[in-house]
Amino acid sequence: MFKGGCRLEFLLVLCGLELSWSCPHHCICYTAPSTVSCQAHNFLSVPEGIPPHSERIFLQNNKIHRLLQGHFSPTTVTLWIYSNNITYIEPSTFHGFAQLEELDLGDNRHLRSLAADTFHGLGRLHALHLYRCGLSALPSNIFQGLRNLQYLYLQDNHLEFLQDDIFVDLHNLSHLFLHGNRLWSLHQNTFRGLGALDRLLLHHNQLQWVDRLAFHDLRRLTTLYLFNNSLTELSGDCLALLPALEYLRLNDNPWECDCKALSLWDWLKRFRGSTSSVGCQAPAELAGKDLKQLRKEDFPNCSGSESLHQSKTWAGTDKVSLKKEPHPVPPPHSHPHSPHHEAPYYPSPPSPLPHPPPSISGEAQGSEGQPGVAPPQRPGRARNCTRQRVRGGKGKGQNEVHTLKEMADKEYSLPDFEGGKYDHTSPDGTITRRKHKCPPRTTVRPPSGVQQATNRAMFSQPLVHLSTILGALLPVTIVHILR
Fold first, then answer.
1. Helix extents (H) in 130-254
2. pLDDT tens for residues 133-157?
C-alpha cells in the first residue's frame, strides 16, 4: 500500500518534469491556464517546443518574421505577437482555431498585406489588433464570419479606402478604431451592419467627403471623432441618423461656414450632447469664429427657402432613420469614389410639420353653432382611448373651447417617434416625453339635417303671430292711403 503510493507520487513528479522540459528555451511556462511566455528574447522565429495544448501564448517584443501553419495549437485562446517584424502570415496559420478569443498582431510595421481568409473560422474572436501594421488596403471579406468580434483596432495604418460592406458581419462590434490612416471618403455602405457600434474614431485622417447616409446603421453610436481631417462641410442629415450620439469632435477641420453649413449649424443648435468647437475658415468675415456660436443673421446670402428645405429634409430624416427597414436604397453614383465628383443627392421627400386637421378647427366652430365633425384617427396609429365622451357641449364656455383647441394643436403639431412616443420641448428648454396621447373627442351633436329641422320648429310659432298682425293692419293702411 505504501509502496504503491510512492510509485504514484513518483509518476506525478515525472509528469511534472516532463511538462517543464517541454517549455521552450528562454521561455517561462505556467499551468491552469496553460501559458507560455516568450516575450522580449529577440526570437527570429516562433520558438520550437511550445506545448501542444497551450491556451495563452505571449511572443511580443521579438523579431519574428513569419507565421506559418503548425506554429500554434488550435486550443489557443489568447495569442500576443505584437511588436515583431512580421512580414508574412500564411493564410492557413489560424485555420481551425475555434477557441481563439484575442489575437494581437499590432505594431508589425512591415506586414502591409493580409490574405482574405486569414481570419476565417475564428468564430469566438472578440478582439483583433491590427494597428501600426503598414496596411494600405483590406480585402473586402477579410472579416467574414467574425460575428462575436467586439474590438477592432485598425489605427495608424496607411488605409486610403474601405470597401463597401467590409464590416457587414460584425454585428457585435462595439469599438472601431480607424484614426491615423489616410481615409478621404466615407460612403453610404462603409459601416453597414454595425448596429451595435458604440465608438467610432476617425480623427487624424484625410477625410474630405462624407456621404449623407454614411452612418445610417449606427443607431447605438455614442462617440464619434472626426477632428483633424480635411472636411469643409458635413450635412446635418448625416448626424441626424445618430439618435444615441453623446460625444462629437469636429475641431481642426477647414469648415466653410456659408450656405452649405446651414443644416450642420441647425443640427448643432439642437444637439444636447458634448461637442467641440467648429472653427470657421471661410468666408473671410467669419474666419476664426465657432459655427455653433453664429446667428441666423450671419448667413445673409442664404435664401430662406434653401434653409427651410434643408431643415425639413434632415428633420424628416430623423423619422426615416427610425424605420425598421433593412437598408435605405442607395442613390445612384456617377463617380462613387471621388469627392470632387460628388454623386447627386436624392433626399427623402421633405416632411413638413403636421398641421391640425380640418376637424380640429371644425370642432371650435361647432361650439358656435355649426355642426362638428369627429376628428379622424392619426395615420399609422390605432386609437386606444378608454375615457368617456364629453356630453353637454351646448353650455361650453369660450375659455373651454380655446383650451380644447390648444390641446388639439399640440397633439397634431408634434412629430412622432417610435410608435406613438414623441418629445415636446417646453419653454424652459426641458424635454417631456408623452406617449399614446389620444386626440380630444368632439362633443356628440345631432346631424345637421336634424339640427336645421329643430331650428325651423323653434321659429314657426312666432311667424304665425306676425302674419296675423300684418293681415289686420293691411286694410287700415289702405284706407289711410286712399284718404
1. 236-240
2. 999 999 999 999 999 999 999 999 9
